[in-house]
Amino acid sequence: MSDVDAAQERIRKACREVTAARPAYTEILKFYEAVFLAQEEAKAHTHIPRIDIPEDILAMKLAEKFPLVAAADFEIDLAAATRLLEKLCEIAGASASVNMKEAARIISESLGSESLNPKDLFDLVLGKDTSDKIPAGVSADMALLFGYNSIRPSLMLCSEHLSASLNAEEAWRTGYCPICGSSPGLSMLKGEGERSYVCSFCWHEWLTPRIYCPFCENTDSSQLHYFFSDEEPEYRVDGCDRCSRYIKTVDLRKTSRTIVPVVEAIATLHLDLKAGDSSA
pLDDT at position 276, please? Predict the structure, then answer.
């Protein structure tokens, strides 16, 4: 089995197991499963140059705990990302969301008529101000959704290349991704309780101190707490009294399910609602 086939099978299995346990996620995971499978296929055909960071700059960034790159520094395979964008429009065209269907139609037609340069859509995700070039009728949220999911394979490849410059065994004592500086989207507990964060942008996973708030760097255990449900022991929400923010955590020690971080990011949307209710 190839690496692509293996990755796709893990995604399929993870989605099956989530929907078997929580049928309410069936419709949304049907859509995102197709997206994630398309991304894995695209990743195998994505080619980007390695980002070269001079040794003195790299040493300084590692010593000062600076992220290695900014979002705008990521290399994007424009041809591969454009092909994936076209595929995502097809997938979205069959979704249950009226807004998504309409955005997919407008983007697809704009690509066909060449009134939309896909690079403008991708640049918007990378923090460049190209909003005036997005087709009328496509909201900012939809533009970012289609743009981000199209370039995600490139982002992941860049992240994998850059991670070779990091010490994977050393806890990164900051709350932002050591690759790109983005906030973590998920927390993972493994083995003897080691904690890692997963970047919400490039999907790099890094070790972090167990008792730690990624948003305000609070390490006072009396101000850090979590809650969970007996019905879902593998999930918990870690909150901080100092900054009133939270992060969703997947405890791999308490489940035998197939865990794929990108799937879990979708399969834990209900935790965002619960966290919002608890902080109200």
Answer: 64
